[in-house]
Amino acid sequence: MKAHYEAMMTRYEEEMDAYEKNMADYNVLVSDYNSKHEIFEKRKQEIIENEKQRLLTEEAPSIEAEIKQLDIEKQEAEKNIKSGAFIEKYLMEDEDYREAKYAMTLYDCELKELSEELAKQYGILNSLLEPGIIFPKYNDVIAWSTMYEYFMTGRVEGLSGTNGAYNLYESELRANIIIAKMDVIIDKLDQIKDNQYILYNILKKTNEEIEDLNEKMGEMISVSEDIREESIDTNKYLDAIYKTEEGIAYNTKKTAMYTQINARATTAIAFMKAIWG
């Protein structure tokens, strides 16, 4: 899950870099617009001063209409710039910006759902900690999974005492038989296969599920080009992409993964009540 989150954040930063580049291009465009507008104003004054008599007698009506139309266009352009519509319209003409905006919309939606699921799992974790069954020193997933394995393999029958799970855990930790640091475990996952098999199996399966989920998300994003429009409607875009074959496959995989996580949490609660309660 951490790797998935970091991958999404890396993509997000790349997309922000693209956005900043587009903004820089836009600033150049605005500067060019202002320069041309100054030239226009100077030229207008020259026309008024140098050809005033001829314009009044021969071309006054048509010139006045042209100037009025230019003023209208100028006011409309200023209005669009102030409202941000001009910026958005200009940026949405760039394919890279458009792709980044769609991807960010999708990532924001997925991150929101992921945050809600994490909050749910933290709530379950807190409910397991509240009874105070486990000594606070061992309230982490590594200690829990290792001691759970002790119980499931019949190596211990209780938590405390000379032959208890606490004592065996500390002994194997001192002898470097087990690893208690998650960052080390992630980097050297295969090293815990023999002595921390349950934790190894869960992490390996989780990594595979995340990789599969990432692949399906990539497939879903790849088809989004077919449903893009010049002006983005967030709800319309998300609804459309989730209805594609790739979107359905992604949501099916994601739902299955969350279901498995919840099932594991249910099993953990039952185990705590049955064995350590």
Describe the structure.
- By secondary structure, the chain is mostly helical.
- The protein is built from 10 helices and no strands.
- Helix 1 packs antiparallel against helix 2 (52-83), helix 1 (2-50) packs antiparallel against helix 4 (95-129) and helix 4 runs parallel beside helix 10.
- The chain is rod-shaped, with a radius of gyration of 32 Å.
Summarize the SSE layout with pairings.
Blueprint: H1 2-50, H2 52-83, H3 85-91, H4 95-129, H5 141-152, H6 165-174, H7 182-187, H8 197-222, H9 234-242, H10 245-276
Helix pairs in contact: 1-2, 1-4, 4-10, 8-10
Care to give the gist of this entry?
With 277 residues, this protein is an all-alpha fold. The chain is 79% helix and 0% strand.
Which short descriptors sum up this protein?
10 helices; rod-shaped
Please identify the oligomeric state: single chain
The succession of helices and strands, N to C, reads HHHHHHHHHH
State mean pLDDT (0 to 100 scale): 76
Tell me the structural class. mainly alpha
List the uncertain runs.
none
Strand tally? 0
